[in-house]
Write a structure and sequence with these properties.
This protein has 381 residues and is an alpha/beta fold. The chain is built from 16 helices and twelve strands. Strands 8-1-9-10 form a four-stranded antiparallel beta sheet. Strands 4-3-5-6 form a four-stranded parallel beta sheet. A two-stranded antiparallel ribbon has the order 2-7. Strand 3 (112-116), helix 6 and strand 4 form a beta-alpha-beta unit. Helix 2 packs across helix 11 (246-266), helix 6 packs parallel to helix 10 (208-221) and helix 12 (288-302) packs antiparallel against helix 13. The longest helix is centred in the last third of the chain and has 36 residues, at 345-380.
Length: 381
């Protein structure tokens, strides 16, 4: 029995070390967000301004369960990678691998726009059962929209209204990597401000089979984001309420672990959070080493005197000065101010004991000083 428990513990440790985040923590975060959303939707929908019942749902209500995985890096992402440092980062989206597909869980997902090379020779007829596009739509259930060439984009969709309608009808643009370098000129710079209108390069190589594999791979094992200018990266995981079955929730858990591992291995990620659009942030991971490095870098800038206070992480709670480690300091930053006494009760007790001891020692020193003086005076006599 003891050996079995030891093996079980080793397995649990592997899960944590490989993914960076324990499964139980992710599961509790997901269930907590679900409860929060249920509580929000069950409450009476009253307009705050008028005090009357809402007859129609606001657009904000539809976005309440939009799930985001948030990763915070020590450095800004545009300073931490060779690709992001170049000007290409503006035009190249960040392709992130996933364990299972995410796009089918997005409520407002429309269709995928395909932009191919002008010299494409294989069958691109979506209605023809022999074409690869037909298989993608009918067998793989991938919502393929318009299939156009770079030349058509330059001519047929050159007018602003035509291009705007084309963008509005699609959620993503997948572009043959042989013509992707032409897209900034053909689409215009403003198109690259949004992820939905930023072309995602895929391998086609003038082959229907290669196109089939690339599109299927994008749908089943990729999620797209943009390189952030700062140190916070938001990744859209779809709508939380769409993960209704147990298998859906397992897929979500796998995806969170899989994505987190990629970034924890590559970057100095200091924290990972999960949240919906209007929910509080739920912490999943804190890297104490990363937080300590950040504190040390701040210490070097502020100077020797200020650095000591930063390293010690001293804070004041109800007049008591408490010393916190990096993890507790991060917890202090996100904690409710009204709950600080209960969260840091142990630290407060030890700090108050130290303070009481120091006060006793000081009083003893004060009492001892005049006795020493009396001894000296007696020796002189």
């Amino acid at each position: 029995m003891a050996s079995k428990t030891a093996v079980h513990k080793k397995k649990e440790e592997k899960v944590v070390s490989e993914s960076g985040i324990p499964e139980k923590r992710i599961q509790s975060a997901i269930s907590g967000l679900e409860k929060y959303l249920q509580k929000e939707t069950s409450e009476e929908k009253v307009n705050e301004k008028t005090g009357k019942f809402k007859l129609l749902d606001d657009d904000e209500d539809e976005l309440k369960d939009k799930l985001q995985l948030i990763l915070v890096n020590n450095l800004p992402f545009n300073e931490d990678t060779s690709i992001a440092k170049t000007k290409k980062a503006v035009f190249k989206p960040l392709s992130i691998g996933t364990e299972t597909g995410v796009h089918s869980y997005i409520n407002d997902f429309k269709k995928i726009l395909l932009i191919l090379n002008d010299s494409t020779k294989f069958n691109i007829d979506k209605e023809d059962s022999g074409s690869e596009l037909y298989k993608l739509i009918n067998e793989e259930k991938i919502p393929i929209g318009e299939v156009i060439t770079a030349k058509q984009l330059k001519t047929l969709y050159k007018p602003f209204e035509n291009r705007r309608k084309l963008f509005n009808d699609h959620s993503y643009i997948l572009c043959d990597d042989s013509v992707v370098t032409l897209m900034p000129k053909l689409l215009g710079g403003k198109a690259f401000n949004q992820i939905s209108t930023t072309p995602v390069p895929i391998r086609v190589r003038n082959s229907g089979n290669t196109l089939f594999t690339s599109v299927k791979n994008f749908w089943n094992s990729k999620v797209i984001s943009k390189y952030p200018n700062g140190s916070t990266l938001n990744i859209n995981l779809g709508n939380l309420l769409n993960y209704s079955s147990e298998s859906d929730k397992k897929n979500l858990l796998k995806n969170i672990q899989f994505i987190a591992k990629q970034f924890l291995d590559k970057y100095m990620i200091r924290s990972v959070f999960l949240k919906t659009n209007f929910s509080p942030v739920v912490p999943l991971f804190y890297n104490e080493k990363s937080l300590q490095e950040l504190i040390q870098s701040k210490e070097q800038v502020k100077g020797d005197d200020e650095s000591k206070d930063v390293i010690k992480n001293k804070i004041e709670i109800n007049g008591v000065e408490v010393e916190l480690n990096a993890f507790n300091r991060a917890l202090y930053e996100i904690a409710n101010p009204e709950e600080l006494e209960t969260i840091f009760s142990k630290q407060l007790k030890s700090a108050s004991k130290k303070r009481d001891l120091s006060e006793v020692e000081q009083t003893e020193l004060v009492e001892e000083k005049p006795i020493k003086k009396q001894k000296k005076s007696s020796k002189k006599n």
